[in-house]
Amino acid sequence: MSNVSTSNIRNVALVGHHGAGKTTLAESLLVASGSLERAGSIERGSTVCDFEPEEISRQLSISLAIAPMWVDEVKVNLLDVPGYADFAVDLGEALAAVDLAVIVVSATDGVQAQTEDAWRAAAELGLPRVVVINKLDRERADFDRALADIRSRFGAGVAPVELPIGSEQGFCGVIDLFDDTATTYGPPPASGPRSATTGPIPEDLAASEHVVHEQLVEGIVVGDDELTARYLDGETIPRHELEESLASGVAAGAVFPVLCCSGLSGVGVDRLARLLVELCPSPDRRPPVTVTAGDTLQEVPCDPGGQPLLAVCKVLADQHTGRIALAKVLSGVIQPDEVLVNTRTRADERLHLLEQLRGKEVSPVSEAVAGDFVALRRLNGTLPGDTLAPKGMPVAVARPGTDPPPLSIAIRPASHTDEDKLMSALQRLCEEDPALAVRRDDETHQTVLGVSGEVHGAVTLERLARRYHVTVEREDLAVAYRETIASPAETQETYKKQTGGHGQYAVVRLRVEPLGRGEGFTFHDEVVGGAIPRQYLPAVEKGVREAMAHGGPHGYPVVDVAVTCDDGKHHPVDSSEMSFKTAGSLAFNAALRKAGSVVLEPISRVEVTVPGEAQGEVLGDLHARRGRVQGTQGAAGDLQTIVALVPTAELVRYAADLRAITGGRGRFRATHDHYDVVP
Ligand code: GDP
């Protein structure tokens, strides 16, 4: 593969709702640019970007994939980003690594939940954006409706640069609103790109051309105050000024061209490929990356003459090929066998062979230049998110903190053999998948996976079986209940074994009193006159603590109790730490029986972010879950954030339920807050 210079690189992410046609469009772009002979199919599982068995069986992108295409001398790295909400981690990784986001919108469905998520995430990064109205060949595809939807959701700056010719199955070309020309496509060939001819605009489309042209001008001038003023004064802005303003508006993340195409039929796709080359800034024309160096922040420009610096965006694990890390070259030129330092682990990493990834295929490259991506094998302890830097330059790419996974699922190994392999297999999966967390809950004796949603959970279990041959079963997530005393009580217990030889003797008197929620446990010594010698009191406390951990009458650990030891008796020969510990446990258990016990349940603090129109229903649902709403406040756009305290037991299926109520637009985060009496 020929080498490329930084200024000839374009990094582009295809993002949007799942099913909008991103993977098919990536395939079609590869064909249109001559980088692939024939397009694969989602249904047959033969596309470049969806290659994992879990993706093929679901016909759904699960994992970020990369495929480079060449448009003349320019290398365009296409990142196909999963649209499903469960795989949002990859969306963040991809957007952080590219210089332009292509927001793919289905012409039948318009703007959907994850279209908005992708838009919002790109907007937060100030990333240049292009919108593609895709699937225009489909039944019930409606360009006007989709465009109106895009304009109303994404507002000023949306500038349609094309208009479709024909609709549904008759979609056969596009009108270029800058050139005032029409490009129509020939029938699909057996392989290679579709032929196209360009000519004048058909008469029947002149009227709609005029309307959309006005929208184009309005969208472009928004990015430029001076042009806006002239436009509002009724001036006709010359075409060259509009073109210049479009390019600078796109680069500034203020103007968003809208294109038409069908990834499946290939109509309009070659034009999209060329537009990406024209409008996507090369990596060296984008703002520098911020890195941390100890406590200070530094800016690293994308400069091939700079120090070699790599940011690892993704680790792919495969049984056959081993682990492959996909990294972005932030600066410098990376050579094979170079030794860099992983800033997080401080360990040296030799890079060995440099490769280029296209879907799951790898091909060797002689070097990797700033702005490009490179695939690395045989890295030792490097994980997604790590930075590889030269020795003596310990900088790390500043990364936003990630929230803990919102959904917990409990699993148990299907057999003993599975049990042995389970934890190490899960560990390996976690290394590759930053959205996955694993913990062993000592209280409920469950293995709990933290996942981002039901599909992520299911995919994780399938990967466990396919890659590591570990079979697990799901079980209901056990809620960690506690108990506490219902009232104060006093008891005295004797522990005595004095038949022959060295005996056991201890008498302990205890007073127990309820503490406030979350106060835990206190132990006071009020023994006077040496009734219990000082050295035995820690043993009494230990006995009490063991009895509390062992559980009360309901079998749950006891919390929120103040225990006072105020009297007792000892024997000069037969008393020991052991006998006082046992007496302490006996006395506490007796006190607990006398005081009576109540069960406490964990309460989570939940932050739910939902669209305004769903707020009423979400609040009603939280009430039905015994939630107590603490407040609501406006979030980005039309979103509202609700804060509520909800019993953890009521949240076991909340991820799926919230998705159903809000059509996939709701998000939530739950953290343990306190324990409270079960009503
Ligand atoms: P993704 O989830 O956004 O990557 O979407 P896919 O590329 O997996 O496509 C989802 C479904 O839509 C598949 O069944 C595709 O065959 C179909 N599809 C994708 N693009 C088009 C298109 O342009 N026209 C039509 N008619 N169907 C399409």
Helix content: 25-40%
**Discrete helix count:** 15
Mean pLDDT: 91
- Tally the beta strands: 37
Task: Measure the end-to-end span.
Answer: 69 Å
Ligand types: guanosine-5'-diphosphate
Order of strands across the main sheet: 18-17-23-14-15-22-19-20
List low-confidence stretches.
none
Please state the structural category: alpha+beta
- Evaluate the radius of gyration: 32 Å
Description of the structure:
With 679 residues, this protein is of the alpha+beta class. It has an eight-stranded antiparallel beta sheet with strand order 18-17-23-14-15-22-19-20. A seven-stranded mixed beta sheet has the order 2-3-1-4-5-11-6, sandwiched between helices. Strands 29, 34, 35, 36 and 37 form a five-stranded antiparallel beta sheet that branches. It is elongated and about 110 Å long. The mean pLDDT is 91.
Structure summary:
By secondary structure, this protein is of the alpha+beta class. It contains 15 helices and 37 strands. Strand 19 (354-358) and strand 20 (361-364) form a beta hairpin.
List keywords for this structure.
7-stranded mixed sheet, binds guanosine-5'-diphosphate, single chain, 679 residues, elongated, alpha+beta
Topology:
Elements: E1 9-16, H1 22-32, H2 53-58, E2 65-71, E3 74-80, H3 88-97, E4 100-106, H4 113-124, E5 129-134, H5 143-154, E6 158-160, E7 162-165, E8 173-176, E9 181-185, E10 196-200, H6 206-221, H7 225-232, H8 239-251, E11 256-260, H9 269-279, E12 289-293, E13 296-300, E14 309-318, E15 322-331, E16 333-334, E17 339-342, E18 348-350, E19 354-358, E20 361-364, E21 368-369, E22 373-377, E23 387-389, E24 396-397, E25 407-413, H10 416-432, E26 437-441, E27 446-451, H11 454-468, E28 472-475, E29 482-485, E30 489-497, E31 504-514, E32 521-525, H12 537-550, E33 561-569, H13 577-595, E34 597-611, H14 615-624, E35 628-634, E36 639-647, H15 654-662, E37 667-677
Parallel strand pairs: 1-3, 1-4, 4-5, 5-11, 6-11, 32-33
Antiparallel strand pairs: 2-3, 7-8, 8-9, 9-10, 12-13, 12-24, 14-15, 14-23, 15-22, 16-21, 17-18, 17-23, 19-20, 19-22, 25-27, 25-28, 26-27, 29-34, 30-31, 31-33, 34-36, 34-37, 35-36
Helix pairs in contact: 1-9, 10-11, 12-13
The structure holds guanosine-5'-diphosphate.
